[in-house]
Amino acid sequence: MAESDRTPPTVYLLYGDDSLAISEFITRLREKLGDPGTADLNTERLVASQMDLGRLAEICAATPFLARRRLVIVDGVAHAGLEGPRAQAFFELLESLPPSTALALLQVLEPQEAKSGDPPSKLQPLIEWVSRHPNSAFVRLFRTPSGPAFADWLRQRCARMGGEIEPRAVQLLAEWVGEDARVADQELAKLLDYVDRQRPVRAADVEQLTPFRGQSDVFAMVDALGRREAKQAFTRLRRLLELESPGYAFAMIRRQFRMLLIAREAIDQGLNPRQVLHAPAFVVAKVASQAQNFTLPDLERIYHDLLDLDIASKTGRADLTVGIETLAASLVA
């Protein structure tokens, strides 16, 4: 049977810590729905923790409008409360999906969850269901590349964006962004615009443009949060939001707490954070110091809250600036 003749899956289970790759997979699914206007009319997005199964069933059963399929996205599926009768009803729904519906179940993991290689226990029933339904379901784990693989990713990403980057520039950029794919993507776009795609990006370009203007404010804000100094934390946060767009400021804050989480886990295991953090030496030293101000459960909760805010802002349920300030306030309360 030719590839084009195969019936596409009705269920997509997409999980991992590489939220950029997950978002891009969803974008490709949307593009198959037609032009942007038609895609908007045939896309629904829900949050698993607030999901009503009856409502989900109605959405999935709806007929596509001027398109072959509808796309229904459920964010944070690990928090859907799939236990007992609710789990049975949910799996029955999955088995009854019409071919005209593509149901994408998403779960962004914390770094250590993806690194372990074992899916979270709350996702295991879904993964087992997918394995029993290979003709109608698709599953993929998206891991953020690390070490040499991240450098390869940067080079390939740069080529897809229509540019080139020299080896030393790749190494320097990987160090600066802390192997955060979202931040790296934004930095590459900025660097390629700077060279106008007329020559390769050089290390000097990275040194000139990439060291974040707001990095000192991120460090100072996290220091103040760790000491529970509300006034200082908000002063630095507002300065950061003045310097950068809310989306970029959020990416920087998320990157910082991702590194703090990795560093705290290393410290608790008796390891030196330098062994697990791929960043400039002064950044690793600062992150290791800041990690002492938080417990691992604290950092897991903060990082989870940041992921929730990311989803809420993208689905129109929250304003990113307000959400960042609200989260900061909760940490110093």
What can you tell me about this protein's structure?
This protein is of the alpha/beta class and 333 residues long. It folds into 3 domains: 3-142, Rossmann fold (3-Layer(aba) Sandwich), CATH 3.40.50.300; 148-209, Helicase, Ruva Protein, domain 3 (Orthogonal Bundle); 215-332, Zinc Finger, Delta Prime, domain 3 (Up-down Bundle). Helix content is 58%, strand content 9%. It is built from 16 helices and 5 strands. The chain has a 5-stranded parallel sheet, with helices on both faces. It is globular. The mean pLDDT is 88.
Number of continuous helical runs: 16
CATH level-four homologous superfamily name of the largest domain: P-loop containing nucleotide triphosphate hydrolases
What is the chain-wise order of helices and strands?
A: EHHEHEHEHHEHHHHHHHHHH
How many domain regions?
3
CATH C-level class of the largest domain is: Alpha Beta
CATH A-level architecture of the largest domain: 3-Layer(aba) Sandwich
Computed CA radius of gyration, to the nearest angstrom: 21 Å
Q: What is the CATH topology descriptor of the largest domain?
A: Rossmann fold
The assigned structural class equals alpha/beta
Instruction: Order the strands across the largest sheet as they lie in space.
Output: 2-3-4-1-5
**Uncertain residue segments:** none
